[in-house]
């Protein structure tokens, strides 16, 4: 079946502009996660959605970042007034919540803020 | 404090040799899971192996095994018979709690280079 998909694969934007990143999780997966990976670094948790529960936003670095998940499926991560330090690869993952429940990752969106 | 520590920024191994990638973790939760992911230069994150905190046996998946030492809070990945295609970044990650759908905390990774 289809894996996690993300769009766009690459995004170049000017400082101060808003961007929207999209994630389409694996069908049937109840949990969806956003992570950020800066150059040469590990993954940093941003936000996650579990079913119809309120999202856990504890990893969002500032109020310029927000995300929503519509209909328990597709998610959009929005970054307002982008800054150069927002440049990174944004990875989305999903899983079903079983005991092992490895997370399946999308290919990521490489964001460059000029 | 770092929850996941990977002390080896880079490692080299000869093809067909075994290599151990170190990972130590820090948690006060008695229930947790430990994961290893591989990230080739293409950027995709590939799940390799999982170890639950209550699992009695060390996890194995093909050429991958996890050397789990609970008292020392270490979860080292052992790759046997290294292949050129094993060259990649390797990340250790932890999920705290018993539920499968909670975020992972990642280490900074180890870059493994396999030499012919």
Architecture overview:
The complex is a heterodimer of chains A (114) and B (116). Chain A is built from no helices and 10 strands. Chain A has 114 residues and is mainly beta. In chain A, a hairpin with a 5-residue loop joins strand 4 (31-37) and strand 5 (43-50). Chain A starts with a strand and ends with a strand. Chain B is mainly β and 116 residues long. Chain B has no helices and 12 strands. In chain B, strands 2, 5, 6, 10, 11 and 12 form a 6-stranded mixed β-sheet that branches. Chain B has a 4-stranded antiparallel β-sheet with strand order 3-9-8-7, with no helix packed on it.
Task: Fill in the keyword field for this structure.
heterodimer; A: 114 residues; mainly beta; six-stranded mixed β-sheet; four-stranded antiparallel β-sheet; 10 strands; 0% helix; 46% strand; globular; B: 116 residues; 50% strand
Structure summary, number of beta strands of chain A = 10
Q: Indicate the percent of residues in helices of chain A.
A: under 10%
Rg of chain A, alpha carbons? 13 Å
The residue-averaged pLDDT of chain A reads 93
- Shape designation of chain B: globular
One letter per element, helices H and strands E, the order of chain B comes to EEEEEEEEEEEE
From N to C, what is the helix and strand string of chain A? EEEEEEEEEE
Number of separate helices of chain B? 0
Oligomer: heterodimer
Largest sheet of chain A: 6 strands, mixed
- pLDDT under 50 segments of chain A (min length 5)? none
Gap from first CA to last CA of chain A: 37 Å
**Helix fraction of chain B?**
under 10%
Report the average pLDDT across residues of chain B: 95
- Spatial extent as radius of gyration of chain B: 14 Å
Estimated structural class of chain B: mainly beta
Beta strands of chain B, count: 12
State the end-to-end CA separation of chain B: 38 Å
């Amino acid at each position: 079946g289809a894996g996690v998909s993300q769009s766009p694969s690459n995004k170049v934007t000017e400082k101060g502009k808003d961007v929207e990143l999209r994630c389409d999780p694996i069908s049937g997966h109840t949990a969806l996660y956003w992570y950020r990976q800066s150059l040469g670094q590990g993954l940093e948790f941003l936000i996650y959605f579990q079913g119809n529960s309120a999202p856990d936003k504890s990893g969002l670095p500032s109020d310029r970042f927000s995300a929503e998940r519509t209909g328990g499926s597709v998610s959009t991560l929005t970054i307002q007034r982008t800054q150069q330090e927002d440049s990174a690869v944004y990875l989305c993952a999903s899983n079903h919540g079983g005991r092992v429940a490895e997370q399946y990752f999308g290919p990521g969106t490489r964001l460059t803020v000029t | 404090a770092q929850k996941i520590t990977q002390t080896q920024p880079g490692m080299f191994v000869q093809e067909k040799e075994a290599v151990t990638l170190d990972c130590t973790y820090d948690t006060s939760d008695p229930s947790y899971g430990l994961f290893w992911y591989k990230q080739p230069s293409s950027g995709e994150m590939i799940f390799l192996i999982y170890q639950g905190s209550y699992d009695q046996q060390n996890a194995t998946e093909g050429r991958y095994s996890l050397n789990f030492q609970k008292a020392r809070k270490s979860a080292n990945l052992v790759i046997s018979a290294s292949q050129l295609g094993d060259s990649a970044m390797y990340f250790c990650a932890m999920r705290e709690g018993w539920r499968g759908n909670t975020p992972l905390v990642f280490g900074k990774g180890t870059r493994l280079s396999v030499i012919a």
